[in-house]
Each structure stands twice: as structure tokens, then as C-alpha cells.
Design a protein that fits this description.
The structure holds 2 protein chains of 2 kinds. Chain A is α+β, with helices and mostly antiparallel strands. Chain A has a domain at about 160-300: Butyryl-CoA Dehydrogenase, subunit A, domain 3. In chain A, about 55% of the residues lie in helices and about 10% in strands. Chain A has helices at about 5-20, 25-35, 40-50, 60-75, 85, 140, 155-190, 200-230, 235-260, 270-275, 280-285, 290-300; strands spanning about 95-100, 105-110, 115-120, 125-135, 145-155, 190, 195. The relative contact order of chain A is 0.11. In chain B, helix 7 packs parallel to helix 9 and helix 8 (about 275-305) packs antiparallel against helix 9 (about 310-335). Chain B has 3 domains: about 5-120, Orthogonal Bundle (Butyryl-Coa Dehydrogenase, subunit A, domain 1), CATH 1.10.540; about 120-230, Beta Barrel (Butyryl-CoA Dehydrogenase, subunit A, domain 2), CATH 2.40.110; about 245-395, Butyryl-CoA Dehydrogenase, subunit A, domain 3, CATH 1.20.140.10. The radius of gyration of chain B is 22 Å and the shape is globular. The chains are: A alpha+beta, B alpha+beta.
Chain lengths: ~300, ~400
């Protein structure tokens, strides 16, 4: 396993991040909430121009890494557009993207988009979305809508792996940014005659967040390798990644909010937007406890693959 | 890691299975036979050129890759470090002598370490100098030429592991008090048999041999015992710390024990609370996370781009993993963690011993070799631009 993404993938991620900055950067999520149609006007074409939708992450290992880097870049700006879900699209089903769904009321953050969706469940059953029902205003629902699904049969193991892994890369990008914002803020804000960054109680909160973020980054890379090398345990590896991603998000956003104080709740700070729009990624298709339970069910008595499997 | 690494892992596992009893809990027990096992195992490794694998060929090594060295660290720590205390000589005492020792010092020390015949201890910490090592006060006072020259060492070291077993001490002492506290320090290579050295073991929950006090009462040392230059001690210690950046592969033992648990518990595994299964799976995820963070540091180090912050993030993750996984393992054993259970058989007894030992030893993981607070200070420094830090973070590691 090579630990870093390829040079090409890193370059592609940087290009996506730069292009989104040029298209509005932090403003994109605000504009989309105000006028949801802007997602398809302002965001999708920018990514399309770079060739994002032509990537074939299932067929090509380099494209998989490029797709992961693109998701991370989209997360950095808190883009409320299903980049990871579109990149996970199944080749042979007639769909623009893939959603992992669970529970009696399947849902995903794809309301108000004119896209066709395939689905896959935790037990690898595939489906096709026939309708998306918006649940509420984006301000509180973050574009999540309930889904009507018709079954398309079994055989969705590969779908499930990719559908779990790529959104974790988006969340990683959000955590990159949230921590960056927290580090910047504590170096600006002064109280008691010194910057917040000089207080060890503040520094140690940042280090807790960074350990989670850095660990998540490594597990995200591992999950890509697991897909690329066709590991039998790829679904378990993806669930382990999702578990770490949700835990990391809890810590990083808690720390970022705490260190921002009241200003972090205000619409004028990007943290408040990232925090709200991280919700679908953290809760769907499974929250923390359900992800743990799914991992236990997958891992069985064997556990995760490691150095000492029996 | 490459095919060489896999072959090496298999070779090491074969040797451990052949030469180390399955219920071995390391060299540091009240039974001298356990030390003897470690000493024999070191000689066995040395005969196969596996002890000093990482050393360059001119000093009797194989010039192994960083990944082969990683395999050695993982396999040794997972199996209760059957090299005993000798890992220190191999990992950093030898390499430091290679770089800074005189030809005479190299002839004296390197072959002995490479043959697996010598144990070193590290004379750094003092009662009033723990994390703030540079404040140490053990003094080497000059002796007039007419009285034999050199220095006489007075002072006390503490928390010195393996001091009773050791033949040599890598001693950091103050030769001058006139400059900054980091200056005026010198490393001496001192035989533990020298007159004036007294070792007092400290009974601890970690087990015997881990912690000792070492008293120096006028121990005579000469120019020939100085490693590097007089006054260069702090730079040498920084180098030692860089050799130990990744440190022991704690994640390997955590993973081995966690993965063994379902087999050892047999049918009892299924009747554990679901929440405990979930904690177990979470710990396996954290094992993988710590291992990958270690690999990242190793890879950055090989590329020459590692920063103290990278290493610190790994150390925080791995030491917390050590403690959290020990708690989960103790919970998995339940009552059996503390009281022998007739039904669990030899495998159960082995596992109980391992887990109980792991729990006790893990209590020190966030304290030993640079406390977790020091790691956090280093990581905070990496995250924040230096001018923002008015406090202690600027003074550490500089």
C-alpha cells in the first residue's frame, strides 16, 4: 500500500479546489441554500469542465484516486452537491449516481436535482430511485429528501464499497477546512492580552482534533487501496473508514465550534455552514452507533484484516 | 512493504515459535530464566544477522530497509519483546556510536551489541528533570591532571529501565553550568561496574526492572569515555530521539491480543454484550489507524520530510490506543482477567496473563519516552504558526 495519493490525483484535487474557489468558494453553499437551482448552474458545470464526471473510479485505479481527491476538494468548500455520489455511479444501471441507503425510510441529500439515482443497501441489494421527496427547507434539511425505490436485485457489493468510501473523502475535506478555520481563528482572537492560540487548553483541543483528522486520512487512503487491490474485506474496510469518519467529525466540529465561540454559530463564518452541511454525511445512511453495529456484523469473529489474523 | 518484508516476518515468527515459550511475558519478571531466554534469543538473532539488521554492512548489519526494520519492531513488540532490553543498544546506542564514537569506542561497543552480548541503560531522567530534561543536574566535575584527570560524576538518575541488568550506561551529565541549560551537557559511556555506581530498584505496578534509581558518587570517567565532544550532549540526545521517532510498535501487540480474543473465548464470545463487540471493532479500527500513522511517519522520514508534528500525532494515537485497547480487553475477559478460570484451559491462562500484563504496562504508555503532553505541545506547534505561541511550546524541542 502506498500511503499518499498519486501526484496526478493530488494535482486533480488541487485543480478542483481552485476551480471551485474561482466559481465562488465559500459563497457556493450560501448561494445554493438561497437558490437551490444554482447547484446545477454554478457547481456541476465547473466540475464537468475539469472532466470530473468522466472519471471511471470503478475501472481505473488512478481515476479512483482522482475521484477521492475531487470529493475532498468539494468537501473543503462545503459544496452542497452530491459529488461523491455521482462519482460512485454504477456503469451498467441507467443512473447518474449511486446512493447507499438503509432503514425503513431511505433518504439522501439529493433533493431538487434533476438526476437519476441507483441505490444499494447494506446487504448489497440494488435499487432505482423513482421519486425524491424534499423534507423541508435546505436551511434545516440540507437538501435531504425521502426516496421511493424499486428493487433492481442483488449483486451490489462493489456499489456498496465505493458508495461508502467516496462520501468519507468529502467529509475529510470538510474536516480539513474546519480545523484550518479553527487554527486561523485562535491566532487572530485575543483575550486576556494574548492570542487564544497561546493557551495550552486551546492548543490541546486542536491536537485532539488533528489526531482524529490525520487518522481518518490514513484510513481513507487504506479503503481506496482495499478497493484497488480487490480485497475480500473491502466492505468491512469501508465501514471501518465510515466509523472513523463519523467519530472524527464529532471531535473536529466540536473543537472548531468551541474555539470559535459565539462567532462560529453566525452565518458570517464558514464554520457554521460546514457544520450544518456535514450533517447528511454524518447521519446518512447510518449514524455512529448503526455504523458500529454494521461493522461488527461484517467483521464477525475474524475482525479487520491486519498483521495477526488467525 | 515489499516481498523482503513478508519473508522476514515469516522468518521472525518461525524463530519466535521455536525459541520463545508461548506464555512468555518478556524478560522483565522475577524469574531470571526469562532474562536468560531473551539473552539466548538475541544471540540466536545475531547468529542469523537479524539482530542488527538495520546497521550498515561495515558494522555487521544487513543495511535493511526502513520497512524491514518496521517488521522487526512489530513482531518483537507483539511477542513481548523477546530481545529484552537489548533493543536499545540495537536501535539507538549503536547507531549513535557509529556516528560519533572514536574508533576505539566503536571497536569496544559495536561488535558486542551486534553479537547480542550487552545490555545498555539510559541515564537521562532525574528526580527534578523529567520532561524538562535539559535542566538536569548530575554533574561531572573536572579532576586535576595530577590526580588522574577526567571527571568525577555526582548525582542521581531515576526511572532508569534495566539498570540492574545493564553492563553499560549512556549517561547524560552536566560538564559546565555557565551557558544555556542545553549547553554544557556531555554524554559519557560508563560501565555499570564502575566504583561509585549504586542501583536501587523501585517496586512498581509495571513489574520488576522497569524502573530504578541510579546513584553516582564520585564515579571516575575520562576523555576516552566521552561520546562526541564535551558539551555536545544535547545535540546527541536530539539525535537519539530522532532514531526513536516511531518508537515501539505498540499497535502490534494491541492488534494481536484483540484478534486473538474471539478464538480464546470460544462460545463465550457470542454472549458478550453487543456494546463490547462494538468497542472491540472500534479498537481494531484504531489499531489500523495507528499502524498507518506509523507507516506515514516512516515514509516521510525516509523521504527526509518528516516533522516533529507528524511523529507526535502518531505517538498520541498509539499511546491512547494502548490504554483504550487494554481497557476493552480487560472488559472482554471480565472476572477472568483477575481470577483463574478452570474452564478456559492453557490458551485461556496464556491470554489472561497477556492481557493483565498489557493493561498494567499500558498505564505508562502516555508517560514513557516523552509524555503525551509533550507530544501535544509538539503537534500544536506544527498546527499553529510559531509567533502565536508565547508559552512553553516555543521552548520545547528547539
Amino acid at each position: 500500500m502506498i500511503i499518499e495519493l498519486s501526484e496526478e490525483a493530488l494535482a486533480f484535487g488541487a485543480a478542483v479546489r481552485e476551480a471551485l474557489a474561482g466559481a465562488g468558494g465559500d459563497r457556493l453553499v450560501r448561494d445554493a441554500e438561497h437558490d437551490p437551482a444554482k447547484r446545477e448552474i454554478d457547481i456541476a458545470p465547473v466540475l464537468g469542465k475539469l472532466g470530473t464526471w468522466e472519471l471511471a473510479p470503478r475501472a481505473d485505479a488512478d481515476d479512483l484516486e482522482a475521484a477521492a481527491a475531487a470529493c475532498r476538494a468539494a468537501g473543503y468548500w462545503g459544496i452542497p452537491y452530491p459529488v461523491a455520489q455521482r462519482l460512485a455511479r454504477p456503469a451498467e444501471l441507467d443512473a447518474d449516481g449511486l446512493l447507499v441507503v438503509a432503514g425503513p425510510r431511505p433518504a439522501a441529500a439529493v433533493a431538487g436535482l434533476g438526476l437519476r439515482w441507483a441505490t444499494v443497501t447494506l446487504d448489497e441489494r440494488r435499487g432505482i430511485v423513482t421519486a425524491v421527496h424534499p423534507d423541508g427547507p435546505p436551511r434545516t434539511a440540507s437538501f435531504v429528501g425521502g426516496l421511493d425505490i424499486v428493487s433492481a436485485g442483488p449483486g451490489g457489493a462493489e456499489d456498496l464499497t465505493l458508495g461508502l468510501v467516496l462520501p468519507c473523502w468529502t467529509l475529510l475535506g470538510m474536516l480539513d477546512r474546519a480545523l484550518e478555520l479553527a487554527c486561523e481563528y485562535v491566532q487572530l482572537r485575543e483575550q486576556f492580552g494574548q492570542r487564544l492560540a497561546a493557551f495550552q487548553g486551546v492548543q490541546f483541543q486542536l491536537t485532539d482534533a488533528e489526531v482524529e483528522r490525520a487518522g481518518l486520512e490514513m484510513l481513507a487512503r487504506y479503503a481506496l487501496w482495499s478497493i484497488q487491490s480487490g480485497q475480500q474485506a473491502a466492505v468491512a474496510d469501508a465501514l471501518a473508514l465510515r466509523l472513523a469518519a463519523i467519530e472524527a467529525a464529532d471531535v473536529v466540529f466540536r473543537v472548531a465550534h468551541q474555539l470559535h465561540g459565539a462567532i462560529g454559530f453566525c452565518d458570517e463564518t464558514q464554520l457554521s455552514w460546514l457544520s450544518r452541511y456535514s450533517q447528511p454525511l454524518r447521519r446518512l445512511p447510518l449514524g455512529l452507533s448503526a455504523t458500529r453495529a454494521a461493522l461488527v456484523a461484517r467483521a464477525g469473529r475474524r475482525g479487520l484484516d491486519g498483521l495477526f489474523n488467525e | 512493504m515489499g516481498p523482503g518484508a513478508s519473508a522476514l516476518r515469516a522468518e521472525l515468527r518461525g524463530l519466535i515459535a521455536e525459541h520463545v515459550p508461548p506464555d512468555y511475558l518478556g524478560a522483565f519478571t522475577h524469574d531470571p530464566a526469562d532474562l536468560e531466554i531473551a539473552q539466548r534469543f538475541c544471540r540466536t538473532l545475531a547468529e542469523r544477522d537479524l539482530l542488527c539488521l538495520a546497521w550498515p554492512a561495515e558494522f555487521g548489519g544487513r543495511g535493511a530497509s526502513v520497512w524491514e526494520q518496521t517488521v522487526v519492531r512489530e513482531e518483537m513488540w507483539a511477542h513481548h519483546e523477546p530481545r529484552g532490553a537489548q533493543y536499545m543498544g540495537v536501535n539507538w546506542v549503536g547507531p549513535t556510536i557509529m556516528r560519533h564514537g572514536t574508533p576505539e569506542q566503536q571497536r569496544t561497543h559495536l561488535p558486542a551489541i551486534a553479537r547480542g552480548e550487552v545490555i545498555w541503560c539510559q541515564g537521562f531522567s532525574e528526580p527534578d528533570s523529567g520532561s524538562d530534561l535539559a535542566s538536569l543536574r548530575t554533574a561531572a566535575r573536572p579532576v586535576a591532571g595530577t590526580e588522574g584527570g577526567g571527571w568525577r560524576v555526582y548525582g542521581q538518575k531515576i526511572w532508569t529501565s534495566y539498570a540492574l541488568m545493564a553492563q553499560w550506561c549512556f549517561l547524560l551529565a552536566r560538564t559546565s553550568t555557565e551557558e544555556k541549560k542545553q549547553q554544557g551537557l556531555t554524554v559519557f559511556l560508563v560501565p555499570m561496574s564502575a566504583p561509585g555506581i549504586e542501583v536501587r530498584p523501585i517496586p512498581t505496578m509495571l513489574g520488576p526492572h522497569h524502573l530504578n534509581e541510579v546513584f553516582f558518587d564520585g564515579v571516575h570517567v575520562t576523555e576516552a569515555d566521552v561520546l562526541g565532544e564535551v558539551g555536545q550532549g544535547w545535540q546527541l540526545v536530539q539525535e537519539v530521539l530522532s532514531f526513536e521517532r516511531v518508537g515501539i510498535a505498540r499497535y502490534a501487540r494491541c492488534e494481536r491480543l484483540l484478534l486473538a480474543a474471539p478464538r480464546v473465548l470460544g462460545d463465550k464470545w457470542e454472549s458478550l454484550p453487543a456494546e463490547l463487540h462494538a468497542r472491540w471493532a472500534r479498537m481494531l479500527t484504531h489499531c489500523r489507524r495507528a499502524r498507518l500513522l506509523a507507516y506515514r511517519v516512516i515514509s516521510l522520514q525516509a523521504a527526509g520530510t518528516v516533522t516533529p508534528g507528524d511523529a507526535a500525532a502518531y505517538r498520541i494515537a498509539v499511546t491512547r490506543l494502548d490504554q483504550e485497547s487494554a481497557e476493552v480487553l480487560m472488559d472482554i475477559l471480565g472476572l477472568a482477567a483477575l481470577v483463574a478460570d478452570d474452564t478456559s484451559g492453557a490458551d485461556g491462562a496464556w491470554f489472561r496473563g497477556e492481557v493483565e500484563d498489557h493493561w498494567r504496562y499500558s498505564q505508562a504508555s502516555t508517560v514513557a519516552s516523552g509524555s503525551i503532553e509533550m507530544q501535544r505541545i509538539l503537534l500544536a506547534r506544527a498546527l499553529l504558526k510559531p509567533p502565536a505561541l508565547d508559552g512553553i511550546a516555543q521552548k520545547v524541542g528547539s
